[in-house]
Amino acid sequence: MAELSEQHVRNPRADISEGALATARGRLTDRGIDPDPIVGTGELGGDVTVADFYTMLGMVAATEKAGQAPTHAMARLALHTDLPSEVADTLYLAYMQQSAEEAGHGDKVFGNAYFAMGGAAPGADSSAVGNPAQAFLAPGDDRKQNKVRLGGMAGLLGGIETVALNRVFPIFVAWCERWDHPIARDLLTQIQETVRPEESRHVLNWRYVFHTMIAPKGDAVIKAFYESTNRGRATLGSPPIDFETFTRMHGASAPTVRQLLGKERVAFN
Ligand SMILES: [Fe+2]
Ligand SMILES: [Fe+2]
Predict the structure, then answer these.
(1) 249 vs 44, 90, 205, 245, CA distance in Å?
(2) Distance 238 CA to ligand 1 centre (A)
């Protein structure tokens, strides 16, 4: 199955073949769900039906699940850098938490809704930020080089998070609100109560990296982080943000550990 892309937000049927749509309609019908009600409009026009929504859900589930492995690897890489231990420890905790949350979004939230509609969500294998990233994120002997790689991946993932939070989820919420069905109501609750607050914190991880690792290093490193962010956005077919927006999104200072983790950190020394 194709990955979720912003292209689908603008024109939901862009990459969905007639065959895939026919399969979707069959699965939904088998579950006693009408595939034809209209739940929204693509930004380039064209109706979004329950069958399109179903197909998008499968893509979102796979893409969310794909976030689990690289963030897990990043957490461990953080402990093999020359960063101050306070920063490295915070990044470890924040990325471990993000990894668990992305798995939850993929499996428990979107994968669950997709299953309720008749499908088994595809795996994360085809993701742009999934398996190919693993070798790149394995810690090497050079702690400074490990830090550079961590920063590059943090920019890329941050770019993806900005698209998820500001583009993809609002549209899903709108479609859920319009589709009058218990599956939609349940998904809506989970997006609002769980996914959105967690995604907001994932964007804060990107901000934390910026203020602790990137900004102090000066213009060239900031520019590289900015470019990584836009490369991340591009993996979802999303347009780049301009430098002013990038700067504004980072705010004046790093988020606190409490903001990053959504709770106080347990003191262990
Ligand atoms: Fe997520
Ligand atoms: Fe996320």
Answers:
(1) 27, 21, 12, 6
(2) 17
Kindly give the distance from the C-alpha atom of residue 142 to the centroid of ligand 1, in angstroms, as a whole number.
31
**Under 8 Å CB-to-CB from 170, ≥6 apart: which residues?**
none
Distance 98 CA to ligand 2 centre (A): 7
| Phi/psi at 39 (5° precision) | -110, -10
Distance 71 CA to ligand 2 centre (A): 10
pLDDT score at 49: 94
Cα distance between residue 6 and residue 153, in whole Å: 20
Q: Which residue has the tokens 């709770």?
A: 263
Give the CA angle between residues 83, 234, 253 to the nearest 5°. Answer: 40
Determine which helix (DSSP H) or strand (DSSP E) holds 2, and give its type and residue range.
Answer: none
Q: pLDDT digits over 200-221, tens only? A: 999 999 999 999 999 999 999 9
Q: With contact defined as beta carbons under 8 Å apart, do 51 and 218 qualify?
A: no
227: its two tokens: 């470019």
Residues 6+ apart with CB under 8 A from 87: 212, 213
Residue ranges of the domains in the chain? 6-261
CA of residue 156 to ligand 2 center, whole Å: 12
Compute, in angstroms, the gap from residue 133 CA to the centroid of ligand 1.
17
Relative to the alpha carbon of 61, which ligand is closest? 1
pTM: 0.91
240 φ/ψ angles, rounded to the nearest 5 degrees: -70, 155
The owner of tokens 């830090």 is: 147
SS3 140: coil
